[in-house]
Design brief:
Elements: E1 11-12, E2 15-16, E3 23-27, E4 34-39, H1 43-58, H2 67-82, H3 85-96, H4 100-124, E5 128-130, H5 135-138, E6 139-140, E7 143-153, E8 156-160, H6 166-179, E9 183-187, H7 194-206, E10 213-215, H8 222-229, E11 235-239, H9 242-254, E12 258-262, E13 268-271, H10 281-292, E14 304-308, H11 312-324, H12 344-359, E15 363-366, E16 383-387, H13 393-396, E17 403-409, H14 412-420, E18 424-425, E19 427-431, H15 435-444, E20 449-452, E21 466-467, E22 470-471, H16 476-481, E23 484-492
Helix pairs in contact: 1-8, 2-4, 2-7, 3-4, 4-6, 10-11
Length: about 500
């Protein structure tokens, strides 16, 4: 086991400081062992971090550098993180309980790749653009007028992040914000704060100016509330549950702060009959992808499977067989494909939701219990539930665990109605050999992302949802522009 050497203290104004807040422990979800003790930041230290970020933005060099200068610094930042890849991998496994293979590929690998790609994308975006005016507006008589959009950094950014994809989510927030010239206070989940302090180490090594990036781990909500209400904060970006997102939205909204809220999901994988007629491999792989992706702990995972009624029984058999092929085991074993959920409380919540789903008429086809072979760790079996009613709690509530529902539909109109009938609208998948029909369904499905037969989640693809799935977009051009203000500039001859 690689030693975890990440700092356990807040990183404020370019240095690590002794935390003055509540002391708390980090538990390995796979073993239930304590892996670290963190001395959290006090509300006063969070206020210090906000003040440092404010100074760095108002009077420091970072917002006044060229885009290329900032991007060069961020590539040094990425290099410094890359040098800590092994420690970062072990840290994410120990904190989040994510199995080794998925951690290397998606938790750390995707985060590092995204950081470099986001830097490259930010470098290509112009800081000035012409406004689309008719020619007569540009030239009138002997007067010439130029109308321009200038993109400027929003200012001080509070980034509040979750435990499920901690490193990758942090990079998706921190890198675009810094690339545009903003300064950041990062408040990681109290379940997974250690990997975030690695970013502080890397920032200091890369020569990022003091105050540009601050990291404030804490156990309670006091600092987070300050980050959403303090008048010196200009933008709040949060990833987490819709319930917490509503509270953050109200707090930040009182000060009319800009917001990026990436919240819950209850996404569908919709199979048309033609996708199943030559075999059930696509549906089996769709089920596997939910369970393999950090035990179903992902807001955009497609945890509702919709299939034609005539294929439902066969699909249930195929999906159950896929579950039998998963390996529940040690998170540091490369052969493990299903790890634990993040905490005992999370597992108890999953158990309660499955019980409610069964009470509402659902039928557990496979799983539905703690695995007998694991006497330690917050493990829960990959679970498939057959449901008939979209009002079932398992069809309406984000489970955030390895639970998949399978539901039949009679025709495409009903399938679309079921897809759209949740409080969330983050993502959906459509599987069909008829691409024209698939694209037609894209226009009928009300979600932030619709994947037709394939997916893409990287630095270039924007992510966000409708309804309770959030406000704004992360990643891609919209995700970078979200950290900028648009200033209208007019220049003319005397």
């Amino acid at each position: 086991m690689t030693e975890i050497v990440a700092s356990r203290s807040p990183f404020v104004d370019g240095v690590f400081v002794t935390g003055a807040g509540e002391r708390f422990t980090i538990t390995d979800p796979g073993t239930e062992e304590t892996v670290a003790t963190v001395q959290g930041a006090s509300p006063e230290q969070v206020a210090d971090a906000i003040a440092a970020a404010r100074r760095a933005f108002d009077t420091g060099p970072w917002p006044r550098m060229t885009v290329d200068e900032r991007c060069d610094a961020l590539l040094r930042f990425a290099d410094a993180i890359e040098a800590r890849r092994d420690v970062l991998t072990e840290t994410v496994i120990a904190e989040a309980g994510c199995p080794l293979g998925f951690t290397q590929m998606m938790q750390v690998g995707m985060g590092l790749a995204s950081s470099r790609d986001l830097v490259g994308l930010a470098r290509t975006l112009p800081e000035w653009e012409h406004n689309e005016l008719p020619l007569t507006e540009y030239v009138a008589g002997n007067k010439v007028k130029l109308s321009i959009r200038r993109y400027e950094p929003v200012g001080v950014v509070s980034a509040i992040t979750p435990s499920n994809f901690p490193f990758t989510t942090n990079m998706w927030k921190v890198v675009p914000a810094l690339a545009t010239g903003c300064t950041v206070i990062l408040r990681p989940s109290p379940a997974t704060p250690l990997e975030a302090t690695v970013l502080g180490e890397a920032a200091a090594e890369a020569g990022i100016p003091p105050g540009v990036l601050n990291v404030v781990p804490e156990l309670g909500p006091a600092g987070a509330e300050l980050l959403t209400t303090h008048p010196d904060v200009d933008l709040v970006t949060f990833t987490g549950s819709s319930a917490v997102g509503r509270r953050i939205g109200a707090q930040a909204g009182a000060g009319l702060k800009r917001q990026i809220l990436e919240l819950g999901g209850k996404s569908v994988q919709l199979y048309l009959a033609d996708a199943l007629e030559d075999g059930l491999g696509a549906a089996a792989m769709g089920a596997f992808s939910v369970f393999f992706a950090h035990a179903g702990q992902g807001c955009s995972l497609q945890t509702r499977m919709l299939v034609p009624e005539a294929h439902k029984a066969a699909v249930l058999d195929a999906v159950a067989a896929t579950v039998d092929g998963l390996t529940i085991g040690d998170t540091r074993d490369a052969t493990t494909t299903l790890g634990p959920v993040v905490s005992a409380a999370s597992r108890e919540r999953i158990e309660g939701l499955v019980a409610r789903g069964v009470g509402a008429g659902g039928r557990v086809v496979t799983g539905g219990a703690r695995p007998a072979q694991r006497d330690r760790g917050f493990y829960y079996e990959a679970t498939v539930v057959d449901i008939d009613d979209n009002a079932n709690p398992l069809a309406q509530t984000e489970v955030f665990g390895p639970v998949l529902t399978v539901q039949g539909y009679r025709d495409l109109d009903e399938a679309v109605a079921i897809t759209n009938d949740t409080p969330y609208d983050l993502s959906a998948g459509v599987y069909t050999s008829d691409l024209a029909l698939g694209l037609d369904l894209v226009g009928r499905i009300r979600t932030g992302t619709v994947q037709v037969n394939t997916g893409a989640a990287n630095a270039f693809t924007p992510m966000g949802g409708y309804k309770l799935s959030g406000i704004g977009r992360e990643r891609g051009v919209p995700g970078i522009r979200a950290f900028q203000q648009v200033k209208h500039v007019v220049v003319g001859t005397l």
